[in-house]
Amino acid sequence: MKIPTFRTLARIALLLGLPLVATPALVSAAPAHRVSVDWLKPSDGPYPVIHRGDRVWLRVSIARQRVYVHLNGHVAYAMVASTGLDSPPDDATPRGTFRIQRERGLFFYAPREREGARYWVSWLHHGEYLFHSVPTDREGRIIVSEARKLGREASHGCIRLTLPDARWIYRHIPYGTYVVIGG
Hints:
By secondary structure, the protein is α+β, with helices and mostly antiparallel strands. The protein has four helices and nine strands. The longest helix is centred in the first third of the chain and has 11 residues, at 6-16.
């Protein structure tokens, strides 16, 4: 697994017109500690307030299983996540720079996977790769055995979040926001 270098992150920040602040979250490649996560609560306390004109982008760390909300050049919030299992044929979370797409919704269910989720927001292939809540069943009830995996690789390529974190992204992260996914 290739970890993005500080130089790579600096180029991304320059592309986005953001000052780069060297924080441990930006330069650390250490894996996240395995802790029990309450999927019904926010990951990191009160959410940041985004105003019109603020520079916001999301960075997904596959190594740390976190989504970092960058606001005006600083990490404003860290969400516990679950990215793809990286198993064939199609369970990897794509790496690269993407943008939030127009597609979003309150609920979906994928019969083939026998899972759904709440508060989904597309970032690749117009509905194929999403930010969304921990998995639910057909009736929208959280699948506890899957929710317990939050904080480690577990998805089919999407980025799973706590229910409130997914709702916050659904409500507050606008179309066109950059999403940078790396090691």
